[in-house]
Design goal:
284 residues, flat, mainly alpha, MetI-like fold
């Protein structure tokens, strides 16, 4: 009903105009894509010699290993950021002022510092005792964890605050403690609101793994830097690496959507069970 008030359904003429706009925009995009392909072809960027490395077994293996490194860095960073975000997002709602202010200081600090500075600091100050490659790997994981975790902390806090106050008041009325109210009542509902922002932050985390290139190339950035030096194929390499990033983003989005549905479903079942037990206790 709210959407009907805020947005009038288009009439036949408007719908026809929208279809025309869609067709025209599609044709323009196809024309631009065709022009780009023609320019690349005229420049010889589709010559077999430039693309042969991507069907060479040892190079394919190296790309696969680099892709796996990038994927594991992103997954570890996202999982760590989710934990970080939940902990500090809930802590910012604490009734205890020292906890609330300490959480605010941590979140605002890591939100304000650029990721590349966090990676550089972590590489030279935290993981300097490791090998260069391992140090770069864990610098990426740690930096993306705290940065994206700080962003997600605000997302979680805003999502919980966006819920109607009656949700918490009803839970308190049946005798639930604040921890139970947040974990069983508010957080599962807030996740539904926050899932688009969480998925967007996952995509940001994956793309930001490439920033370690300024310190030491690792993962797909290693291939992007080294392969053109041997085969002078910067454009084909960039296209392939970009395609792998897009594919990985789609994969992470699908996994996040599946996990969100499973998480919310289990939490809602537990929520109903806890509320039912509390009601029975009050009736008794």
């Amino acid at each position: 009903m709210a959407s009907g008030v805020l947005f009038d359904a288009p009439g036949p003429k408007t719908a026809a105009r929208h279809r025309i706009y869609t067709v025209v925009a599609s044709l323009v995009l196809l024309a631009l894509a065709a022009w780009a392909v023609k320019r690349l072809n005229d420049a010889g960027q589709f010559d077999y010699d430039l693309w042969e490395p991507f069907v060479t077994p040892n190079i394919m293996q190296a790309i696969g290993e680099a892709w796996l490194d990038t994927l594991t860095m992103a997954v570890l960073a996202v999982l760590g950021a989710l934990v970080f975000g939940v902990v500090f997002g809930v802590a910012k709602l604490s009734d205890h002022k020292p906890v609330r202010w300490a959480s605010w200081l941590v979140v605002e600090f890591f939100r304000a510092v650029p990721v590349i500075m966090l990676m550089t600091f972590a590489f030279y100050a935290v993981f300097n005792s490791m090998s260069i490659e391992r140090g770069a790997y864990w610098s990426v994981v740690l930096s993306l964890t705290v940065y994206n975790g700080a962003v997600l902390a605000e997302v979680f806090r805003a999502g919980i605050n966006a819920l109607p106050r009656g949700q918490a008041e009803a839970a308190y009325a049946i005798g639930l403690r604040k921890t139970q109210v947040v974990n069983l009542i508010l957080l599962p509902q807030a996740v539904k609101i926050m899932i688009p922002a969480i998925i967007s932050q996952m995509v940001v985390a994956l793309k930001d793994t490439s920033l370690i290139l300024i310190v030491f190339p690792i993962g797909l950035t290693k291939i992007l830097k080294q392969l053109p030096l041997s085969f002078n194929n910067i454009v084909p390499t960039t296209l392939v690496i970009a395609g792998l990033y897009v594919l990985t983003n789609l994969l992470l989005t699908a996994i996040a959507t599946w996990a969100q549905k499973r998480f919310v479903g289990e939490k809602e079942m537990l929520q109903v069970s806890m509320v039912g037990e509390a009601d029975q206790g009050q009736i008794a």
